[in-house]
Design brief:
The chain is mostly helical. The protein folds into two domains: 268 residues, Rhopdopsin 7-helix transmembrane proteins (Up-down Bundle); 115 residues, no CATH class. The chain has 18 helices and no strands.
Length: 405
């Protein structure tokens, strides 16, 4: 263990993160967004999201050592992957800037400043990509380097400028994007999932700055005659992988988080209605038909409809005086007003069920109280029925409050 601490390259090799892991996470984010991107292709925000995720996937596919060697062999140029990967990284950096500018300003912002910022990003980073290929054509890089090209050719004319150009372009984009994201994440009125997604994006871009710092330090050390290649070959790759995972999670969280939260709320509402639903089944003798392929929303709607359909005629048996006494009893037992109303309604419904069993047909003159509030508050009533001991305590205390003859 002490040897690993003294040798940072060996230490970092123990925590190597395969490039295929962030590729899989980024692909999952792209798959989640792809149907919406295709359906709303004219939306510049969605195009920017799709472009960033696609370019990020391409970066990690083409920057793996095996793919680098395969591309070099197919093209017949020893280091053809260098300008190709640098161009993908530069395009991804520009795409991130465009995304934040479009996302933060919104689709309604068509100001000259926004259009000018978009044109500036596209023109500058397009020029950088052209310069990367021009510098590679002018450079002499005959020895194929798969993992340490940045430091191996750090002192080679034109390759030196190419390496410095792509790192500076990437670092500038990450600094600006990270700053914009963090400022946006701390503004008021954001949805919780969007806020946490922005924080993950900000953390991912902050790690990209660490990646650039490690690369630039290793290259600078070569210029000064020192060997810190492990920063470029062993530290930078896992940092880039972790950064990509955080960026992908930042895109996934607002979409998947809201989707899962909505599904959880529907299932919770369906489960909370179960006590009142079971009670209404004892009154009607029927049940909601089970449909295998019914969505959670449809099952919830059917359960709510069934409960209200059975509860509506049952309101003719409700005792309003008992409901009032039950509310006073619940308040006397220390329950807050909202909980007391639910317990009082639950007690009144149980009394109505018992009354109906004793008198199946009420007199024709009995119309019952207004059922509007009860039918709209079936969820709190059902939650109250989950605590039968509390409902029985309220009913017992309400009986004690019956006025004498």
């Amino acid at each position: 263990m002490r040897e690993l601490a003294l040798d940072p390259a060996r230490f970092l090799s123990e925590f190597y993160i395969s490039f295929w892991i962030p590729t899989a996470v980024l692909t999952a984010a792209l798959v989640l967004k792809l149907p919406t991107i295709i359906r709303l292709w004219r939306d510049p925000l969605l195009r920017a999201v799709g472009g960033l995720l696609l370019l990020a996937c391409a970066v990690f596919v083409f920057c793996t050592p095996s793919t680098i060697h395969r591309v070099n062999r197919l093209t017949g140029v020893p280091n053809f992957s260098a300008p190709w990967c640098y161009s993908l990284i530069t395009a991804m950096s520009a795409s991130g800037l465009l995304l934040i500018v479009t996302w933060r300003n919104g689709l309604s912002d068509r100001s000259a400043a926004t259009r000018r910022a978009v044109r500036w990003v596209v023109s500058v980073y397009s020029a950088v990509i052209v310069a990367l290929w021009a510098l590679f054509l002018l450079a002499d890089a005959p020895v194929e380097r798969i993992r340490d090209l940045d430091t191996y050719y750090a002192g080679t004319p034109f390759m030196r400028e190419e390496i410095l150009l792509y790192l500076c372009a990437h670092a500038t984009a990450c600094l600006v994007t990270s700053r914009l994201i963090w400022n946006w994440a701390h503004t008021e009125g954001l949805d919780a999932f969007l806020r946490w997604g922005l924080k993950l994006l900000g953390a991912g871009y902050a790690l990209n700055i660490v990646f650039n710092g490690a690369k630039l330090t290793a290259v600078g050390a070569r210029w000064c005659g020192h060997d810190l290649d492990w920063l470029s070959t062993d530290l930078a790759p896992p940092v880039a992988s972790l950064s990509a995972i955080l960026v992908a999670a930042g895109f996934i969280l607002p979409h998947a988080g809201q989707y899962l939260y909505d599904r959880w709320r529907v299932r919770l509402a369906h489960r909370e209605l179960r006590p009142l639903y079971q009670l209404m089944r004892t009154v009607s003798g029927d049940s909601v038909p089970f449909v295998l392929r019914a969505t959670p929303e449809l099952r919830l709607t059917r359960r709510e409809t069934f409960v209200r359909d059975v509860l509506l005629p049952l309101t003719r048996y409700l005792d309003t005086d008992l409901a009032t006494r039950s509310y006073d009893a619940a308040r006397a037992l220390g329950h807050p007003a909202e909980r007391a109303r639910a317990l009082a309604a639950a007690a009144a419904v149980l009394d109505a069920v018992e009354h109906k069993r004793r008198t199946p047909e009420p007199p024709e003159s009995v119309t019952g109280p207004d059922p509007t509030n009860l039918l709209s508050d079936i969820a709190p009533v059902s939650r109250a029925l989950r605590r039968p001991e509390e409902v029985e305590a309220v009913r017992a205390r309400a009986r004690e409050r019956v006025p004498s003859a």
